[in-house]
Amino acid sequence: MIFINKENKKPQFNVNINPEKLQILYTDTIFINVNEDGVTLDICQKAGNTGQVQVVSRIGMSRVHANKFAKKLNEILALTLEHKHEEKN
Hints:
The chain has one helix spanning 63-88, and strands spanning 2-4, 11-14, 29-35, 38-46, 53-61. It is an alpha+beta fold.
């Protein structure tokens, strides 16, 4: 993957992913803890019908980074929703 900076359209960096070593973890539950120092996301999966969840990953970031992440996620979700509506028409 190559990420492009919107302003100058030049590649910023390359991202290399080894699919044999980096698996995709599904989540159906996320616990978010926010305090003045930052944000912690506990990414979880339900454990069958036991009513329990298992944390599969923890991600921490600054509040500034969390705001940027939330904004970008909303932008991408809105774009994909627009494309889905276009495909139906």
